[in-house]
Amino acid sequence: MSTVLPGTDRVPGATGSLLRSALRQVATTVLVLGVVVLLWIAALRVWDVSPYVGKTPAEVWTSLFGDADSAELRAEIWGLLQQTLVDAAVGFAAGMLTAIVLAAVVVRYRLLEGAVMPVAVVLQTVPLIALAPILILLVGRGYAVVALMSAIVVLFPALVNIVAGLRSVTPQMRDLVLVYGGSPSTVLLKVGFPSALPALFASVRIAVPGALTGALLAEWLATGKGIGYAVVSAANRSQNTRVWALVVAITLTALLLYLVAQLLETAVLSRFGRAAVRR
């Protein structure tokens, strides 16, 4: 005799559906990679890019795995990538946490929306390159500026998505909580955030490449570390194959992280999504 713990639900076929969804997402990512490679080759040929500047996928593969110094290059790229991932993680955490807190404040206290949203819009519209010198003067060239620059990229889309998710609570659900003695804060915590899970994970998927972009800009303009600075440095020294290898490495990393975010979203929503809606 099987036993189902209280508060848990068994959905027939849920595991199989989750696996099919994960395989579909992986297959889609592989297909996208194939299309990108074909477009890469086609662009080099259509625009007749000089072989000195434009490197084909085969040339990049050879530089990474077929040359005498390939192992050294891979080790160097791995070290740079680790630095960039740390920088991106700092910015991702700062941006997402700020967005979640501000979204909760905006939804809980509507009067503050007029103060919060215009600032977020300004930060989104002003070019980050223009803000960089001011940020560097304010906080220096350490992790603080990395966190700020990446967080600025992450903040606005995450904030808008999460606010919309928190406001998706129906009046009936809100009134039910209030009737049973709950406060507006209880509505936000017990109903708003579970209802906002899809919006939260959509924000995560958007924030992952955004955090990487912010980290690369911060490395280029401020810290002088990681892949962001290495790409510019290699380009200035006309090390074009190295530039392409670095760009391929960070692009594949961004795609992989996006895929991980998708798979995590699918797993969490399949487990808690229906339950969150029912409660």
TrEMBL record:
Q: Domain of life, per the record?
A: Bacteria
- Pfam families for the chain: BPD_transp_1 (PF00528)
Q: Which GO cellular component does the record give, naming just one? A: plasma membrane
Q: Would the keyword Glycoprotein be found if you checked this record's keyword annotation?
A: no
Kindly state which keywords UniProt assigns to this record, in alphabetical order. Cell membrane, Membrane, Transmembrane, Transmembrane helix, Transport
Q: Which residues form the signal peptide?
A: none
The membrane-spanning stretches of this chain are 26-47, 88-107, 119-139, 145-164, 176-193, 243-264
What GO biological process, any one, is recorded here?
A: transmembrane transport
Q: Which PROSITE patterns match?
A: ABC_TM1
Q: Where in the cell is it found?
A: Cell membrane
Topology in the lipid bilayer is annotated as: Multi-pass membrane protein
Protein name according to UniProt: ABC-type nitrate/sulfonate/bicarbonate transport system permease component
Q: Which organism is it from?
A: Modestobacter marinus
Organism lineage string = Bacteria, Bacillati, Actinomycetota, Actinomycetes, Geodermatophilales
